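Q: Sequence in, structure out?
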Amino acid sequence: MHPYLHLGPLNIPTFGLMVATGLLLSAYILQADFNRRRLSADAFWMIGVAGIAGIVGARLYHALESPGEFFADPWPWLISRFGFAWFGGFLGGLTALLILARRAKLPILEFLDACSPAAAAGYAIGRIGCLLSGDGDYGVPTLLPWGMSFPNGVVPTTERVHPTPVYEFIIWMAIAAFLWRMGTKALRGPKAGGEIFCNYLILTGAARFLIEFIRINPKSFFGLSNAQAASLLSILFGALLLWRLKKREAPTP
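A: Exactly. Output:
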């Protein structure tokens, strides 16, 4: 693995490089969705702000997953280059996007629909950063032929393990393509606003919940990892919101 790219005196973290690439791709996809929906907004500015908020949220959520250790010595947790929680990043980024959408006077549900494929694709690219850096986001040992070892990773292992970042990259890119296609169909005919966002919450929540069974994360809630608990909340909220939207759109007898 290659945690850093060495360019003369510069050492560029590959994780940070792929996160930046993921944000850039997200901005391009979101701007394309704005254009086809005829929404007047600057996706690159929004993604830039949301990216910073997401990084802060991911760092704080990760730190608070171990509150005793964090409050005993918080500074190393806050300034470390490693240790980010997906759900914290999602909450931080989503909060920033909602504030920006409100200030831009965009219809919230349509805005969230437009953000969904961009968010899925950006996450997928970010996981390649986890793969390149070998930051411990890999899975449990496996004898499958595509198992990988990370002897030079940030969190090294010489065992062949499940390359879960590769799995997530494939799954999340497939989700992004599916959500984009949903958006295309929505523009051709009536569809409840927010339905694409609900599918994003359900599909990504289900994918992360299942991936966690072969990840090395510690268990906490009823034998589930923190990420699995957050994923269940994502699925539940997405399903309830989708049910409410469908009920609101259903014709009254």
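The CA atoms of residues 241 and 249 lie 12 Å apart.
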